[in-house]
Amino acid sequence: MRRETAYKLAGRHHDRPLPGADIHKQREIRFKTLPPGQVERAWRSLQVLKELQLERTDDPLAIVVRYSVLDYSLETLEDALREAGFALDNSLYAKLVRAIVYFSEETQRHNLLSPERLIKQSNEVYIHAWDHHIHGDHDDTPPELREYK
């Protein structure tokens, strides 16, 4: 049985606002020095996106972005910039930070979007489903004939 089916049998409703909808991330996107002027072009490109806040830093090769985990991820933003022809910093440190951030944001997003877990009486849902399922454990013999007297 799929987990969503069990939740529906237990009467769970998932139409309320998500508990982590207000989780915002602040990340730094770093660019290479060449080609020149790409930070300004990236700034203009990212300004078009809704629910994304941009901020300048002291470093002329970096842009700080703020976003909700449910709307964006660093991976999608950087992939879009790469596809548009921007050259991002590719040092070993940047690669390690990216890998950790990509994994943590993906996991956090998955956990926020997955349905609420059944904690109490979860076994009753499966027992109820099993009772309605046709299986080979059914005995048609009347109870009085099954017992030896």
- Percentage of residues in DSSP E strands: 5-15%
Number of helices: 6
User: Main sheet?
Assistant: 3 strands, antiparallel
**Helical fraction:** 40-55%
The helix/strand class is: alpha+beta
Q: Are there runs of 5+ residues with pLDDT below 50, and where?
A: none
* Shape summary: rod-shaped
End-to-end CA span? 41 Å
Q: Which sequence of SSEs, written as H and E, runs from N to C?
A: HEHEEHHHH
* Sheet with most strands: strand arrangement: 1-3-2
**What is the average per-residue confidence, as pLDDT, rounded to a whole number?**
84
Layout of helices and strands:
Layout: H1 3-9, E1 24-30, H2 38-47, E2 52-56, E3 62-68, H3 74-83, H4 92-113, H5 122-131, H6 143-146
Give an account of the 3D structure:
The chain is α+β, with helices and mostly antiparallel strands and 149 residues long. The protein is 42% helix and 13% strand.
